[in-house]
Amino acid sequence: MIFTKTHQDEQQAVQFIKERSIEINQMVDLDVLIESIGNKRIVMLGEATHGTHEYYTWRSYISIQLIERKGFNFIAVEGDWPDCYRINRYIKGKAGTSALEILKTFDRWPTWMWANWEIAALTEWLNNYNKSLQYNQRIGFYGLDVYSLWDSLHAVREYLQKVDPQALTKAEEAFLCFEPYKNDEGTSYAYASKMVPDLCQEEVVGLLQEIRRKLPQYDSDEEVVFSTEQNALIAVNAEKYYRAMINGGPQSWNVRDSHMEETLERLLDFHGPDSKAIVWEHNTHIGDSRATDMTDEGMYNIGELARTRYPEKDVALVGFGSYEGTVIAGSSWGAPMKKMDLPEARDGSWEYLLHLADDSNKLLFMEDFRDTPFFDQRIGHRAVGVVYRPHYESYGNYVPTILPQRYDAFIYIDKSSALHPLHLAPHSHQMPDTYPFGL
């Protein structure tokens, strides 16, 4: 949906943007956002694409300020738990010698989402920052997603081999049940579960129950025990996800976002009653789905779940978007990543209106727009995934959105640039200028 009022209405909407937005010329201009967060417990930082440089560096700046000035305890991202847990162990001084060494092991498509120079810079900052802290105070980095079924099962097996050979039987049963389906991202399992609905459900549920029963007996590193339980939980929810995937509709999406919200809750509980979380995910996950047409389809997301579970004073949802530029993506699932043009936003979209106001980068506090005309309707809001075909953008890539209801704040970048993947030029070990505010 595009802006459907008259030209005069469009001009008035643009005038509101001019009057009520804050121009951003450099990252320090985002400090007003940091102060507005106050004592909130959960801050979710979105992105309109999975391959934009500024989304990563600006979220890094915001995250660092929240850690240093507001006492936030961890960053949780739209990534796989086993991969992100390796970053977590490195920044806490438990494994690895450099961010580059850790991130080079991220070989699951789309590799560029986390194996990039922008994340390498943030990872090194976190590692350096943590060195001055007691271990139980060190900042964490975790993955919220549900896709890592086989890596998670493998991690559980490795742990139980060391500490609980008796429970290993349960892990072996689950692994053997899934093994015939491990080469195609769960598609063959989804089809097989159509014929046998409870194909491997009993095995993964049994594994999780066994680990939870034995948790009090595990006396190794407390976080390693937590990670083992989390990997078993991923196996349970991934199995649900793959079964739901074959039926179409909203259920698989809802299983995934419910898992991410459950993981966030577990992390907050693990870090204590006063813990604070920073979440990095796509706008389609962190922006309240009730303000979009997703709700018409019966879909919900982690942003909506957080707003309904926690008091309003505890949650801040911050969206990101841009008008034009370049982006890293693939033309199909599993295709080689490449730098693509991000064309000018579609006429009548939120990005179009923001650009029409002027070509500056902007910060909008949504409470300043909730009483204005025309800002209470669903208008197209750009959303680009890891698969992107710019020439089809006129047919898709826009989520009808009531912007002031979807976010608490919105950061607009008029012209954005592509992310810097590590694996795009593996022979290159020189970090580009991705971290102008720190290292």
Would you spell out the secondary-structure blueprint of this structure?
Layout (H helix, E strand, L loop, with lengths): L6 H14 L1 E3 L6 H7 L4 E4 L7 H18 L3 E4 L3 H11 L7 H5 L13 H14 L9 E4 L5 H15 L4 H11 L8 H9 L5 H14 L7 H24 L5 H20 L6 E4 L2 H4 L15 H8 L5 E15 L8 E5 L7 H8 L3 E5 L13 E4 L15 E4 L1 H4 L2 E8 L23
Parallel strand pairs: 2-5, 2-6, 3-4, 3-5, 6-11
Antiparallel strand pairs: 1-8, 6-7, 8-11, 9-10
Could you walk me through the main structural features you see in this protein, from its secondary elements to its overall organization?
With 439 residues, the protein is an alpha/beta fold. Among the domains are: 7-67 and 279-416, EreA-like (biosynthetic domain) (EreA/ChaN-like  fold); 149-246, no CATH class. The chain is built from 16 helices and 11 strands. The radius of gyration is 22 Å and the shape is globular. Residues 425-439 have low confidence and may be disordered. Pfam families: Erythro_esteras. This is Erythromycin esterase family protein. InterPro entries: Emycin_Estase, Hydrolase/PRTase-associated, UCP036794_erythomycin.
Shape: globular
Supply the CATH class of the domain at 7-67 and 279-416. Alpha Beta
Radius of gyration: 22 Å
What is the residue-mean pLDDT, rounded to a whole number? 91
Uncertain runs: 425-439
Distance between the termini: 43 Å
Per CATH, the architecture of the domain at 7-67 and 279-416 is 3-Layer(aba) Sandwich
- Class by helix and strand content? alpha/beta
Number of strands: 11
Q: Provide the β-strand percentage band.
A: 5-15%
What's the order of the H and E elements?
A: HEHEHEHHHEHHHHHHEHHEEHEEEHE
Helix content: 40-55%
Figure out the total of helices.
16
Q: Identify the CATH homologous superfamily of the domain at 7-67 and 279-416.
A: EreA-like (biosynthetic domain)
- The CATH topology label of the domain at 7-67 and 279-416 is EreA/ChaN-like  fold
Give a short account of the largest sheet. Answer: 9 strands, mixed
